[in-house]
Each structure stands twice: as structure tokens, then as C-alpha cells.
Amino acid sequence: MTHNVQIVLTVNGEATEVAFAPYKTLLEVLREDLNLCGTKHGCELGECGACAVLLDGQPVLSCLVLGVDCDGRTVTTIEGLVTDGRLHPLQDTFADLGAAQCGYCTPGFLVTAKALLDEQTHPTRDQIREALSGCLCRCTGYQQIFEAVEAAVATRLSTLDSSTPDSRLTPDSGLQTPDSRGPR
Questions:
Q1: What is the chain's percent helix, strand, coil content, to nearest 5?
Q2: What does the alpha-carbon distance between residue 106 and residue 128 come to, in Å, rounded to a whole number?
Q3: Each residue's pLDDT tens digit in the chain (184 positions)?
Q4: Bridge-partner residues for 115, per DSSP?
Q5: Degrees, nearest 5: CA angle 84-168-171
Q6: N or C, which end of the chain has less CB nearby within 10 Å?
Q7: Dihedral, CA atoms, 33, 34, 38, 39, nearest 10 degrees?
Q8: Residue 3 gets which letter from DSSP?
Q9: Does domain 89-161 have CATH number 1.10.150.120?
Q10: Contact 107, 78 (CB under 8 A)
Q11: Residue ranges of the chain that CATH labels 1.10.150.120
Q12: Which CATH architecture has domain 5-80?
């Protein structure tokens, strides 16, 4: 008879105490014990990326991480990308640009892309491609996925630009337009 282990970890910003069989992976703990089913059960071999989550801010394949190794750590799943009831900009751009077809791989792509954008202000297409190379998709052909990440970067940059003095309305000049640098 296997005795359960009990750990405390932070999941999507909330301290969580959970008991489970010590052989369970983080994927199984999330889905079976915490009922967070956005993280997908794919290959169970660490090859497809469908189970990607952020562990202490870094993307990991939750099918390869033992749950017991997560005591005291921070996990962010796809459910944790929503803030104050609003989708993350990556979720918006994936939906707007058709980067999610069947949707099975989408959570892994989204959390992995979030980790990239948390580290890189303006990643290049090659950096995006490399960061997402551990995630497999059989539906989109990847083009829409890369474009959605780039669109999220552009959205974030335009939001930042709109808060700088050079792009605000001024009483004597009307609406100032951004210079012709193009997407950054």
C-alpha cells in the first residue's frame, strides 16, 4: 500500500496544499488532484510539449517532473494566464490569428511563449521558433503560432508606447503618430 505525500506549492498565484501518491508526475497532480485540466496529457515522454507549465517561471514538461519535487515551488498553468478575468495578450492573439486549431497543443505553446516574453522584450522570429521548438502541433503548420506571438509582442509594445509622452494627445499638436519604425 502506497502512502500519500503532502506538499505545499503555489499554483497560479495561490498557496495550495495537496496530498497524492508519491509516484505521480506534476501533470497527474495538476489534472487528477487539483482538477486543473488545461494542461494536456500528450505523449508522456517529454516529446510533444502539450503538458508544458511554468515551474518557478521556467517552462517544463510536467509529464517529466515528479510532483514531490514541487514542494515549495511556484507553478503556472494555462489557467493562471488570465488576470482579473482578462485573457493574456497571447491568448487574444492566438484566437484572433487562428493559431489554435484543435487546441490540444495550445496550452503548452501559450505558457512556453509567455516564458519567452517574460525574458525577451522583443524576440526575433528565430528566438520564437527556438523557444517553441519543444511544442508540437499537427494542425496549424506553426506559421500562425509564430505570427500570434509576434502580434502579442507588438500589442505589448504599442501599449507601452501609448503610455509614453511622445504618443499622447497634446493640446497644441493633436494626436501624435508613432514614427515609422514598424513592428518592434
A1: 40, 20, 45
A2: 15
A3: 779 999 999 999 999 999 999 999 999 999 999 999 999 999 999 999 999 999 999 999 999 999 999 999 999 999 999 999 999 999 999 999 999 989 999 999 999 999 999 999 899 999 999 999 999 998 888 999 999 999 999 988 887 766 555 433 333 333 222 333 222 2
A4: none
A5: 135
A6: N
A7: -60
A8: P
A9: yes
A10: yes
A11: 89-161
A12: Roll (3.10)
Q: Which part of the chain is CATH 3.10.20.30?
A: 5-80
| H helices present in 79-137, as ranges | 89-96, 106-119, 125-131
The three cell numbers of residue 138 are 499537427
Q: Which residues contact 79 (CB under 8 A, 6 or more apart)?
A: 12, 36, 38
